[in-house]
Write a sequence for this structure.
């Protein structure tokens, strides 16, 4: 998973908490203001395929918005997201000068203050805002090597609300998975700011499937699952089916309801087939760095 | 593409009665932001017969919470949030004179009916293009419940803000007709 040459038994390399916080801060500001090139490319291709004036206008606005946001360093969307961090921590790294979790949270605080990003995190019951967009949701994986890969993903609430997870019949097969995903997209309709990117996690457990689904969103848009041709085929089938739904950009009708379907899979219990759908709006923001 | 209608707030019943689903509108004038918690508070205040921090009569509520303005700027990025979360509170607000709403996504059948009954309108604004939309906001000021942070009620002065009519005063529903 990690970039660079992974060593299995090297000397310990020190990375300071400050470097982690600074990197996390920079990544969240950049992610929120610069739409990734692959997303821009996918929107451009969609614009070429669309014929309806409303679909073309909606996609044109996405491109125009990306240009303004990049040039003026303005957030692409007013919903600058719940901060999600994927960290791949090399086992030969020694974090110095503080604790790893706190320095990531500090980086998020710094980004949301300095970058004039919206603070969108609150207590689940009182709904009182935490005031600094923390806590971030952090997924850490220990990997070989002496590097730290950090991925910042500001995730908007509107699209996240349209996500779904379920335990479907173990023997449902690709047909059952296809139905589960399409049902979620139909139910979401215009709400999650289509065209969306659909991250799907199949297998694992009730907790693993949504993480797989979210990780699938980190792939370059339209890059197929390289590990399993059956999965790659299912991605393509679901994308074709979803784009026949007619929901279209901003839900105003058209051929582009989704830009891509990315599926990640893991083995699961013989009794189970967990399926999770993580819906990503067209403002598919994520940014990474390796220290 | 249909012709574009220019409107200025406050909106009269007569002004919204001619709007039809699918119409493109450029809206100017003052609107008020309110989303989840602010709606709950407005709803509860109306239920108790208490005063509201804003008058709803012929006004437009924008389901939005902008990003903080950069130093020297009037407003940060601004755009619509998903409207359906406000559905349960909306009919009562419409009954008290609210004339228009700006958001994104579908409304419930109850909201569609209340929009017809009270001669109002629900506009869709494009989602996820908030840097672009910030160019159509001339002024912004927090006017109530600053403790809600981004969810505070703000007065935004719009200038040719691009909208599409999604629910009209005849009871029509853009997304229901599309299905």
């Amino acid at each position: 998973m990690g970039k660079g040459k992974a060593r299995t038994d090297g000397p310990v390399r020190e990375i300071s908490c400050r470097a982690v916080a600074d990197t996390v801060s920079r990544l969240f500001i950049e992610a929120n203001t610069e739409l990734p090139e692959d997303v821009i490319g996918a929107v451009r291709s969609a614009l070429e395929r669309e014929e309806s004036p409303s679909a073309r206008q909606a996609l044109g606005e996405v491109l125009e918005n990306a240009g303004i946001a990049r040039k003026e360093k303005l957030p692409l969307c007013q919903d600058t997201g719940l901060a999600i961090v994927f960290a791949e921590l090399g086992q030969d790294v020694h974090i110095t000068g503080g604790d790893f979790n706190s320095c990531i949270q500090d980086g998020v605080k710094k980004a949301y203050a300095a970058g004039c990003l919206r603070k969108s995190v609150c207590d689940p019951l009182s709904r009182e805002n935490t005031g600094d967009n923390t806590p971030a949701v952090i997924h850490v994986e220990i990997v070989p090597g002496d590097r730290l890969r950090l991925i910042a993903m500001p995730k908007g609430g509107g699209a996240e609300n349209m996500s779904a997870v379920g335990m479907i019949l173990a023997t449902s097969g690709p047909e059952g998975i296809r139905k589960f995903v399409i049902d979620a997209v139909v139910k979401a309709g215009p709400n999650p700011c289509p065209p969306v990117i659909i991250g799907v996690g199949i297998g694992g457990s009730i907790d693993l499937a949504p993480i797989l689904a979210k990780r699938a969103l980190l792939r370059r848009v339209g890059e197929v699952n390289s590990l399993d041709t059956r999965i790659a085929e299912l991605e393509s089938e679901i994308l074709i089916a979803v784009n026949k739904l007619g929901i279209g950009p901003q839900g105003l009708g058209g051929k582009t309801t989704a830009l891509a379907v990315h599926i990640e899979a893991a083995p699961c219990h013989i009794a189970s087939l967990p399926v999770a759908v993580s819906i990503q709006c067209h403002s598919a923001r994520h940014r990474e760095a390796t220290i | 593409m249909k012709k574009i209608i220019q409107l200025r707030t406050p909106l009269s019943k007569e002004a919204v009665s001619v709007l039809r689903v699918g119409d493109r509108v450029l809206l100017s004038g003052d609107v008020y932001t309110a989303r989840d918690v602010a709606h709950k508070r407005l709803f509860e205040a109306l239920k108790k017969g208490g005063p509201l921090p804003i008058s709803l009569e012929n006004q437009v509520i924008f389901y939005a919470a902008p990003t903080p303005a950069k130093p020297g700027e009037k407003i940060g990025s601004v755009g619509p949030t998903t409207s359906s979360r406000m559905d349960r509170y909306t009919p009562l607000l419409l009954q008290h004179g609210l004339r228009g709403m700006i958001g994104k996504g579908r409304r419930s059948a109850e909201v569609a009916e209340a929009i017809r009954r009270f001669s109002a309108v629900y506009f869709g604004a494009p989602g996820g293009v908030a840097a672009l939309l910030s160019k159509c906001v001339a002024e912004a000021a927090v006017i109530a419940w600053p403790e809600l942070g981004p969810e505070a009620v703000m007065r935004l002065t719009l200038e040719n803000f691009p909208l599409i009519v999604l629910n009209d005063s005849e009871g029509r529903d853009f997304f229901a007709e599309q299905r």
